[in-house]
Design a protein that fits this description.
four-stranded parallel beta sheet; eight-stranded mixed beta sheet; 14 strands; Glucose Oxidase, domain 1; globular
Length: 601
């Protein structure tokens, strides 16, 4: 079977599986579109409230002949990636005015930084913040005074939450406006080395702080290829950014021009014009397959295996882990960006970036070209590169060849023949593993288990010197229903040290790792989760576990596993503090990881 046939087969399978839900969704979208601009149905009093403070644009808003664009912003100045958004509304309003439109900030959404909450109690709110963002954006757009929406958001849960909201208001066109990555700082491998030295006591906190500040040093996204930058890749592969917009640094003339162009495009594609492009039509089966292909080809964040199913369901599309597994088997790994290599996203962009990658995948038949995007019909537009010529923004053919094959290779001669993610199945449930940064001789680990209920227990055992032989570290009761499924990224330096000492180690958990999951094999998102009676709850210290990424299996070599009495979770420490008490309903109604961990309603 050729790769093209696999792409078609998976797409058809998703379409068939989703037929009922997608059909109902499209009926709702068509009904909303047929009713015309929602402002026409508002009373004069409704509208007066909405326009009261818009002195400059009030006449245009009252006339209701020009499109009104709603801005949903995730601005705060604690997230480096979102700090540039502070003045975007001013630019958007001025640009809309010049284009014969109006724009208003519809509302703000929360945007937490996982880098700040890693290893802290606040991380237990992280996954659920995605659903809060979707709900908050839904409140913003519920005023029904908008003909299109602009979404300002980049980081880990923010883009997925905003896409869920955009899909829910699928009759509106939607354009996502990025702010770009920060300039390159301390190389990521040097930062990682200092982290490991700190974990072993070789350097103190002062050296660690200096390294971290030299790495995260200015406005823009963190430059490693974690969840935030994977989100940006997805927005191009799925046609929600303008072509080439993702990785242009903040504060540059080109970044400014792309923002202006995004606003102008949003004004052009409303139902009031001749090029109506509702986002619900853009977010179809082919768009989601293209997104998964991009995830595999770039070795992107494991978090998107959670987010893509949740995003898709908002558009009436049902994804399954098998879809990810089959596409991973068909799609080659074309990029080496930290933690899968030494380069950062700025180096990746300079080597040809997403435009080169999309062009190469299209030639190989591994992407759907015949899709609707905010830029026009056809994904070929996303092989083009934005340039400023005499102060004017134009798109020109992108790099036809990689400019650095240590970072970026064509689909015909990739770094690996398969993508960066694998599905795992077996008597411990279903999970995933990111193997793009894991050495091939580590793809199979068979060793006794050490069982822990949280990551602090692992780090304490490490400090006591208890890991002296090959070990599979199991951290259970970390799923959505237990404690909100926090990332366990702070375990990465500890486990990496054990591996560097010559031990064969792996992690198995019903929780998450980070988008920066690294060189230690980690079976994550194991479902059913232990708190719901999943098989991890039946494990004991010393049980032999086998993680085989090559075969895609995760098994306990224990014949009587499910006849044992499961260990009950002790979740008393996870109920209060850092706002956790506010999220009790989220924990109670969260779905399983394999369907996105979204709220079940």
């Amino acid at each position: 079977m050729t790769a093209h046939q696999i792409i078609a087969e998976v797409t058809n399978r998703i379409r068939d599986r989703s037929a009922k839900a997608r059909g109902a969704y499209l009926d709702r979208l068509a009904s909303a579109a047929a009713a015309g601009p929602a402002r026409a149905h508002l009373s004069c009093g409704n509208q007066a409230h909405a326009y009261a403070a818009m002195s400059t644009d009030k006449d245009a808003l009252v006339a209701a002949r020009a499109p009104n664009i709603g801005i949903v912003t995730a601005y705060n100045d604690m997230l480096s990636a979102h700090q540039p958004y502070e003045h975007y509304p001013e630019l958007i309003r001025a640009t809309a005015r010049a284009a014969g439109a109006t724009a208003q900030v519809a509302g703000g959404v929360p945007s937490m930084c996982d880098g700040v909450t890693q290893g802290q109690p606040g991380m237990e709110l992280s996954l659920f913040s995605r659903d809060v963002i979707a709900l908050s954006a839904g409140v913003a757009l519920s005023h029904n005074t908008f003909d299109a929406a602009l979404f300002l958001g980049i980081c880990d849960k923010i883009v997925p939450g905003l896409v869920m909201a955009a899909a829910t208001f699928g009759h509106l066109p939607a354009v996502f406006l990025p702010s770009g990555p920060m300039a390159s700082g301390l190389p990521n491998d040097e930062k990682s080395k200092v982290r490991q030295q700190f974990a072993t006591g070789e350097v103190g906190r002062e050296a660690l702080m200096a390294a971290e500040m030299a790495s995260y040093h200015g406005p823009g996204t963190c430059t490693f290829y974690g969840t935030a930058n994977t989100n940006q890749m997805l927005m191009e592969f799925m046609g929600l950014h303008l072509p080439g917009a993702s990785f242009v640094t903040p504060g540059t003339e080109l970044r400014h021009a792309l923002t202006v162009a995004g606003v102008e495009r949003a004004a052009e594609i409303t139902a009031l014009g001749n090029d109506y492009r509702p986002v619900g039509r853009i977010l179809d089966e082919k768009a989601f397959v293209n997104g998964i292909v991009g995830l595999m080809a770039t070795g992107g964040s494991t978090n998107l295996v959670l987010h893509l199913p949740a995003m898709a369901r908002a558009a009436g599309i049902v994804l399954d882990l098998q879809d990810f597994a089959d596409l991973s088997a068909a799609v080659p790994l074309m990029a080496k960006v930290y933690p899968n290599g030494l380069a950062d996203v700025n180096h990746f962009h300079a080597a040809g970036g997403l435009g080169f990658m999309i062009g190469s995948l299209l030639k190989a038949g591994l992407l759907h070209e015949d899709v609707m995007t905010v830029a026009g019909d056809g994904l070929h537009r996303y092989t083009e590169e934005p340039k400023l010529r005499d102060g004017r923004l134009v798109w020109e053919p992108g790099a036809g060849t990689s400019l650095n094959e240590k970072i970026l290779r064509p689909a015909a001669s990739p770094f690996q023949p398969e993508g960066g993610l694998k599905q795992l199945t077996g008597n411990l449930g279903r999970g995933v593993i990111k193997i793009s940064a894991v050495a091939p001789d580590r793809h199979v680990i068979e060793a006794p288990a050490r069982i822990f209920a949280d990551q602090e227990g692992v780090k304490a055992a490490f400090k006591r010197g208890e890991f002296t032989s090959d070990t599979v570290v199991v951290v259970r009761f970390q799923g959505p229903r237990a404690n909100g499924m926090p990332e366990l990224h702070s375990l990465t330096p500890t486990l990496a040290v054990l591996q560097d000492r010559g031990l064969r180690v792996a992690l198995v958990t019903d929780g998450r790792m980070s988008g920066a999951s690294g060189k230690v094999p980690a079976a994550i998102h194991v479902s059913p989760e232990a708190a719901c009676g999943g098989p991890l709850a039946y494990l004991r210290d010393g049980d032999i576990l086998r993680l085989d990424a090559s075969e895609g299996t995760l098994v306990a070599l224990v014949p009587d596993l499910m006849t044992r009495t499961p260990v009950p979770p002790d979740l008393t420490a996870n109920q209060h503090g850092s706002g956790r008490e506010l999220f009790a309903a989220f924990r109670a109604y969260a779905g399983p990881a394999e369907t996105g961990g979204a709220l079940v309603v």
